[in-house]
Queue: 2 jobs
Job 1
Amino acid sequence: MKFGFVKVAAATPRIRVADTEHNAESICACIAKAHEAGAEILVFPELCLCGYTCGDLFGQEVLLEGSLRALRQVAACPQAKDMLVFVGIPLEVGGVLYNCAAALSGGRVLAFIPKRYLPNYAEFYEKRNFQPYRGENIRIPFGGGEVIFGNKVVFRSKTEPDLAVAAELCEDLWVPAPPSVSHALAGANVIVNLSASDETAGKAEYRRMLVRAQSAKTVSAYIYADAGDGESTTDMAFAGHNMICENGEMLAESKLFENGVTVSEVDVRKLAFERRRINTFYDTSQLSGYDSIPFASRGKDLPLTRRIPRLPFVPQGEEALGERAELILSIQAAGLKKRLEHARAQTAVVGISGGLDSALALLVCVRAFDALGRSREGIVAVTMPCFGTTDKTYQNSLRLMRELGVTARTVPVSAAVRQHFADIGHDEAVHNAAYENAQARMRTLVLMDIANDTNGLVVGTGDLSELALGWATYNGDHMSMYGVNASVPKTLVKYLIRSEAARLGGGAEEVLTDILNTEISPELLPPEGGKIAQKTEELVGPYELHDFYLYYAVRWGFPPAKVYYLAKAAFGGSYPPETLKKWLVSFYRRFFAQQFKRSCLPDGVKVGSVALSPRGDWRMPSDACVRLWLEEAENI
């Protein structure tokens, strides 16, 4: 698929215990279904060719030979030839029986991966029938030639350089040091697990946690295929709990007790980027003995089925959103609390415009002062009406200050700005950058001087989205003594305010809801008919698009073409392709051109996975050239 997306699948066939011919047919039917869905990698459960619950039948030559015949039948399936397929089989090597994963591609067996750790506790007694294998790789005769036998094997795609696959089996995941750790250090970024994990109360949740954690720890995709219907229920029941996970995120998961094929796409280039970014990931000093086996897959271009969230900074679900909002607000307040204590500041001075960002900053100030056990009167909230201020935003500013019980001050700045225009010889009728920025800088001057006068700190209100686009006046609203919103994107600002409004209730909730419903604007141009004339999203583009572009361009380092590809998947029903491209080009142009503003940002606490502080996540020269990124974006 495009841009490093690889379609993968985990399948649970409906088997019959010890009926290898039937099981091969059932497995081939699943292969056909996965092939139709476009899968390039397909994983089946542990010992699925004969059944995990064969017990002492594993020692019978009839079963072992039947399993080998079934393996050849599966390898010959036409649809399996351009896929990498893993099936479970009991295999005798040198007079010893092993529980193995057979890797198939191109109509042949590429390798056998024996299980390293055998459970022999509670309901499990695998050591009765099998031996663990922890030796070096060897070559064994098979099918008229030789194949690798061992658990130090990485399968590498011939067509996608960032795709490398390795396997472990069931209990291997549950031990303190799973083989997948070594596999990942050896370069594998897709780990498959052939499992037969029986179902007991609470086990699915624990299993899910293990898969997610191992996927995150190894910075890999993890494909888990579990045994299901058809296994013996003499003492255990199997639910077919299939999972596809990527770097800790669950992409797809089957329902328990429903056999079938679970399909999704994993992004191996995203994983490769993350491994490059984490400079403590690779330590191959103790790795040796790994074999690399090439495999071919079709790499067919198919539509994405995995969910691409339109608001990647905003968690999904009311419960998750509420928890995240509380956490972020607490982080912001903790950062400000520490700074106020350290500076021995008596006040926090914040400019209130009646907009989203200043409302959030004021809410954070209130939390910080409450945590310090100080009176909210120490919060000096200042509204500074000027040429573009509308009555609605002005009144909302006053209402919010009143509801939160802070010290409210109104300092009109129109006269001071006009005097400044006269001093520098600027014609007030000319509404250029000087006209707009003089107002923002005058407001910052007022805040700074009030802070000096009250032994306080100016709390910045600008958010992450504005910093990314440079939508701030240099040394105006760009500057403060501590920026509480510096790593909060605009799309998340709204949800934080909504969450805090619900918590506060009453009049505070009413005014915050009104602020949420107000057009986003810096209000630096005179109103038209008493209404806001300067609408930010008409000038710089929708924030939901820019936040989307920011997340994938900065957090994951995706090239413009891939960001656009994902944007079409996420916003295809809301924006035409030309609009997505227009604002994508604008994003890159602004992001590079405005780096100089980010290079001298005030301190501000990091709350999420993306931050643009020059002391934290993002170091970029202010004169970096955008040419390569613009050429790709413009040629989409």
Note: The two ends are 17 Å apart (CA to CA).
Job 2
Amino acid sequence: MLNTYMTYEDLTKYIEESGRSYDMKLLDQAYELAAKAHDGQMRRSGEPYICHPLNVAKLLVELGMDSQSIAAALLHDVVEDTAVTLEEIKSKFGPDVALLVDGVTKLTKMTFSSLEEQKAENLRKMLLAMSQDVRVMIIKLCDRVHNMRTGDAWPEQKRRDKALETMEVYAPIAHRLGISGIKEELEDRSLRYLDPVGYNEINNLLDTHGAEFLNGIRSDIREHLKENGIEPECIKSRVKSVYGIYRKMYMQRKNFDEIYDIYAVRIILDNVAECYNALGQIHDMYHPLPNRFKDYISTPKPNGYQSLHTTVIGREAIPFEVQIRTNEMDRMAEYGVAAHWKYKAGVSSRDRLDERLAWVRQLLEIQREADDSEELLRDIKSDLLPEEVFAFTPRGDVINLPAGATAIDFAYAIHSAVGNRMIGAKVNNRIVPIDHVISTGEIIEVITGPADKGPSRDWLKIVKTSEAKNKIRNWFKKERREENIAEGRAALDRELRRNMINLTDAKMQEMLAEVARRQRMNSVEEMCAAIGYGGLLLSKIMPKIKEEYTRIREEEAPREAVIPKRVHATDGVIVEGIDNCPIKFAKCCAPLPGDEIVGFITRGFGVSIHKKDCENVKASMANEENRERWVKAYWAPNESKAFRAAVEIEAMDRDGLLSDLLQTLGDMRVPILGMNARPANNSHAVITINVSAANTEHMNNILGRLRKVRDVISVTRS
């Protein structure tokens, strides 16, 4: 938590010390409006709210951003948190500043069906603004950095939620934009909240004498290079970030002693020829480790990073990495997009910047028609993964893909026509399965078949990139329309039968046409085709179908039929046509208020209440003899009784897991009625907890909180 309050005088002094020219009149006006709008507001950390935009503005000055960016940073929260409107900002500061402020403003005035949908739409909005002006994302990254710096003031669960979002979305975006300093700080601060034990363990392992060791190495290298006619512009050093070490120790299963790039020396030279010359001198000075040389100058990373990397061992027997690059490459490595950007005076490399941001537009195009918000977030996170692999075509072209990508992803990355005709693949001249997972440096040859071959639907379950998924779906959308319609119709019919939705043909067509219209589709056939090729998920439209079905049934039912004998409730349930009847709740499905229910007249004990979609209900209704014994049932209004329900949790088996789960339920004041735990395969554990819940909304809150417990894989109501 920061203890000193940032002031506008501090910011102006920092701007003066930067030596860059800024439009101070614009910044003065932005500060005056922000200070007035945020007057009286305080942050959780106890500091005046205006300190936050001031700190964000300072971070942007450190990156060398322009006056409009600094002004937008000062104003970035006024639309979201105060009475100031976007129109007011546009009239006072112009359309560019307004675009930047709007880009980082969340969609607070829209209603969303879930938190995931809200997150997805906010991210989509921000990426869209970023594709128009990359400064939007740079402001947002600086905003997130300062929020994480003051995150100790958040409640514990919010800290973990924000840290996870930062790790999955914002740090990878900083990596894609090449802003390494922000990326590493976001990762380290997120790790501190997500795994404080691991974070502290690595901090303790880092050698406190590292600075002395690196100072000696820098001095030796400078002297040796000078003796051989090479005058470095400067020689820097760094210790690897905590998260960088954590990822290798815990994700790659390495011991601390097996990590060879904890310490690094960076040599900055005038030109590329000197870089390769210096590499030879370093190998002459120190013993290079085999297979630890990487040439990112001839093969840059996807985010534009260029450097020579080699790992060597010195006299102290401590391995360290040497990075050799030009001054321009170093500036790009530190500041990424901000280093050569089109808004700076005297720089007009728009084409180069547009090329750097092509992945944003590609991501937005792929997700443009996405309906499922959870899939949208999943695909965006997958495409932003910082871990990348690169492989070569037989002609020597480099194809960059996220870690875990398959040979099918490789084929579609070359061209959609290559992917559609793919029948096999060779890796380093050896035949491999088409689901072969690519490793860096492999030479991959895609074997193609006839032009009308086409992909398989099963490939959608194999490919990792959203680009490949989108191209496969597009092929089925264009080339297999009749097949898609038939497949989609069959899947829809199965789901309608499973939910016991029965209407006359005319009414069914009318209902589906209305649902298709709400999905912005021209016909039921178009909707079925979308279901068939995977562009529309049944889970997305079934709630709308049920809603429409309920409306039709209510319109058809006579008014009198709704009223009789629904006066008295037993155990919170009204059974239509039966008054003061003994009620019991079926253990097979454990219904809760909010679930659609039906009643079964038992022989000997009143009416058994089931969820309408219970498997036992379907099986019983299929029996002609039992069908007449099923009756309509409803939850009584304003029911406040608690009901028994079971929650099944699958998680990684670890010490303290049960304690964390019970603590979560205790924090929510959820009564625990019983519990059972058993080991499962792959070091997993399955835990069933019987709880008391008021209704389905209460149960969904319980499930949501349990899913956030560390190492939990899935939580379902059983």
Note: The chain has 31 helices and 20 strands.
